[in-house]
Every structure is written in C-alpha cells, then in structure tokens.
Amino acid sequence: MKTIYKILSLLIVAAVLSLSCDDNQGQPEEPVPGAVEFRLSEPSDGTRGGVAGAEELEDARAIVITITDDQGNAVYDQEQIGVFNFSGDMVAEPLSLIPGNYQLTEFLVLDDQGVVIYATPLEGSEYAHLVDDPLPIDFTITADATTQVVPEVIDASDFTPDEFGYASFRFVLVEHFNFLIAAFVYDAGVQGLVLTNAELTVQDQATGSTLYSTSLGDTTNIIAIEDGFDYRLLLEKTGHNPVYLDYSNGELKAFASDPLEVVLQGVSPVPTETFTDSGQALSTESATSVNAGDFDGDGDLDLFITRTNGAVTEVLLNDGTGDYSEVRSLGILNVIGAALGDLDNDGDLDVIMAQWTEQPNLVYLNDGSGNFTDSGQTLGSSASRGVVLGDLDGDGDLDAIVNDMGGFPILLNNGNGVFAQVGSITGTLNALDIALSDLNGDGHLDLFVANSGIGAGVGMPDLVFLNDGNANFSNSGQSLGNAKSSAIAVADVDGDGDFDAFIGDEEQNATIWVNDGNGTFTNSGQSLASTDIHDVVLVDFDLDGDLDAFTVEGVNGPHKLWLNNGSGSFVDSGLTLGNFSSATIAHGDFDIDGDVDVYVAVSGAADILWLGDQN
Questions:
Q1: Which of 15, 51, 316, 348 is most buried, taking the most CB atoms under 10 A from its CB?
Q2: Is the pTM higher than 0.70?
Q3: H or E stretch including 432?
Q4: What is the CA radius of gyration of the chain?
C-alpha cells in the first residue's frame, strides 16, 4: 500500500520581463507583458505527505506545463522549461504572458532522463485529495504587478499517470538555450535609429524548416530556441526589406548576454547626402594629414593639419559655425602623418607626429586651449609614413605604432605622455597605411597592414598582426590579395559585430575584406571603380544605420560617396565632387548642424570643406 506522499510547493511568480537597449528609447506603449516563473521550494508548514529535501529538488531538470487563456485556448501546450539552481532553490526559466486570466492545466517535473519525478494531480483523479488545490488552477496576470500561484506536486515515482488524471507520462527532454535580439529602424523625426517591433522566424539552416516564429517587441527580446542546429533568422516588418542572418550554433549562443541588434532598411529611399563647398579661403599648401578634434574645449571640432617640404604645420580653430579663420602655426616641421589622443591623461587632445626623411617622431602636448608645445621627446630616426594610437598593453593609456619603412616600432606610454620603444613589428612590409582594431574579438588591438608593393604593377599582400594583449604582435599568416594598397579603413561594414576592411589601391579598384569574427579575412568579391584612393572614411552618411564610404583620389579624381546596403555591399551614390588631386580627409559635424561634413586636403590647390546637407 502506498503510504508516503511527498508534496512540494511550487511558487509561480509573474514578473516584468522587459529589457531595453536604452532606458529612454523604444518603450512599448501597450502594457508590459508579465512573465510566469516557476520556483521549486519546500513548503514551510510541513503539510501532509512530508517535505521533499533539497537533495530531491536537485534532481529536477525541467518542468512541463500547459496554460490556457480565458477562452480555453492553449497559450503554452506541454511547454518544457529548463530548471536551474538559484541560491539553493530550483528555479525555472520565465515564460512571457500578456495581462489576463489563465488556467494552469498540467504541471510535471522531469529529471535529466526526461522521467516525471513530481506531478500535480488533476481534479477528480484518484489522488486529487492529496493536495489542497488540484489542477486546473486559475490565476491572473496583471501588468506591473506580481501574481503568485502555489501548486502542490506529489512524488510520482510510485504512481501511474492515470492515478493523477494524466493519459501518459512519456516525454522527451528537449535541450534549448536563450538569446537576445532587438530590431531597429531609422526614424526621420529623431534622425537616428530607434527600437521597433518586427516578426522573427528561426529556421534550421540545413533543411529550411521553421523551428520557431514570434513577434518581437520594441525592446530587447528574450528568445528560447531548441538546441542542436545551425540557424537562419528572418526578420520582417511592413514597409521594410526582410533581413536574413545565418549563425552557427555557437555564434547564436554568443548573444545570450549581449543582444543581437538588427537594423531594418526601409523599402522607400533612405535619406541622401549632398555636399556644398563652404567657400572658405583655406590653405593652398599641400597637407600630409588632417585630424579633427576639440582642442580648446569649446565643444566644436578644430583641425590639426601637417605638412612637409618646408610648409608649416597648423592648428585651425573652429568658431562654432565651421569657420576656420583662426590659425595657429607650429612652425616648419616635416610631418607625414599624425594621430590625436589624450597622451598625458590631462583631459585634452595631444598629438604624436611621424616625420619623413629620417627625422625623429615628435610628441606635442596641448594645454587645453589649443596651444601645443613640444614635449622634447625624439622618437626614432627612420623615414616614417604615419602613426596610429591605441592601448596596446591594456594599462589604460594610449600607446603608438609608427609606420616606418621596413618595420613598425612599438612605443609604449608611461601614462604621462612619455613613450619608449619596446619592440618592432617586422616582416615583408612596405605600407602606405595601417589601422588598429580588435580584429579577432579577444579584446586586444590588432594591426591591419595595407602594403603598397615594390614598384609599378608589382603588388604585395596585405597582412594582419595579432596582439597578445601585452603589445606582442605576431603575423596571423594571412596573405590578403596581391595589390598596391594605399588606404585602409577598418569598421563593421556588414553589421555582424566584427571589424572588416575597406582597402583603396594605387592602381586597381577598391576592395572590401570581410572578417569572420576570428580575425580571418575573405575578399567579398566587390570591385569599386575608384583607383588611386589616397584616403577613405567610413561613416553613416545617409543615416540608415550602416557605414558608407567617402573616398578621395591622389591624381585628378573626384571625391566619391559609396552607399552601403547594410550587408557590406557598396554602390556608387552617383555623387562626385570636383576633380582634384587629394591627399587626406577628416570628417565630423564641423558647423554643428547635425550633418556629416568632410574636410579634404587638396594637393596643388586650396583645401575644401564640404558641408553636408541631410535630405
């Protein structure tokens, strides 16, 4: 005879399950959905049948529930939910419910073999009398409120399903995982991206069969999906182009804590960018680099312009309207490239300059008012082509890599703007441009090298050097192309969360190299008809949520705007500005009107400030 009945109380808590990418954006206007959370806890009153011990609760692997709405429709039908240990209690993952009246009609607890170890009996069954409230149990979910439902379950090891009122206890435990996802669209009112609702379908990549479909809210959504597949995600919204995204099993699981953010493109044309010459009488001296930053702390973008061949290096201060009539000279230097950053950690922008013709590189410190003075450091004596800044050793200050001919000295900062060489990157190097970025996703800054070749028509492969986090760089072994690369910009052009490369070339069309997230690059196959690109910037010029490209050519070529379709495919916008020999560019909102402007250093003629106009 069955004489011992073990009864557990399971607490169901309805709680708010709404995560937001921004506390001030994308909040839904409708009531926030509630969420049902099942918590396995020991009853405190020692009711009949005895109390199940903590060691018994640990056997719980999942629960199976059925919930119906007030119309009798199954909202969740034999839904299997994972259970985990939270501070000694076994807690099930939450289920979302909109406010309303519901019934819990089935409640089973499974172990790791999918065997039912506890169950709540149904009204009218042989053992319904063992619990105070057999199924079904009525409960109500109210927005912004907590609803508690406490069903009792009985140890099912000695009973048959029909004694509980069930036809069967046969279940297969389904492994699953959660990921986070949020959808965005362009909002003309705020001239930026906002959270939006959309329809999500998750498919098995191999067969194309649908695994799950749901409606996404204008928030960060938690999606539970069956494990064991590679996945294809389809996001759809009326008036917008569908978005297809392919992820391996491991890649999709990576969005468990940081959401996958997807931008939906409108079917109607996105805003376009036009440019107008500001008409300012800017310098006719050929510049080698232009960098923009707020040097005097007044909230607008100033310009730092370097030159060689006996011409002066200058600071151009902005009056707040994009007028650069105030010029401060740093004298005649021989600077081929410069990089801005707070080198001495005093809150303002300083500069490190790479000099040409085997002269030492220089560090000039800013007093916060746009006055730069030589720090007295003389760094190296090789012919340099440029310099990049970044925290190479993870100590919180800005270090430097100098693009010398034949090798790249690594200069570490002591935190006060004093640099010391600790090594050098060597190999087959003849780079016109280099770029720092975390290319393999390990949190350290790596180096992409755009090699220029060794003569007319003779190219060299571009290279990737990976940083171990202590400023030790090793060649990744990749040989990317065999061209004469002249300019590089590194950014996420295809929206997959890693850094890709836009490469300009001296003699061939520009190319796009796509990163797989681990620092391995593949040629996208694009060939953008623009040769002898001397500089490129990647910016969202048309405000559709992806990065477009603005390029300038070295010998009598137009300035071009290339528009990105969101997946890293670029098309010529048809906008061509002038016919110039140009060396370098800087971008920013120089006239503080909310648009992206571009300053172009022109060789043999006056520089041009193109003022952007968003349409």
A1: 316
A2: no
A3: strand 431-437
A4: 31
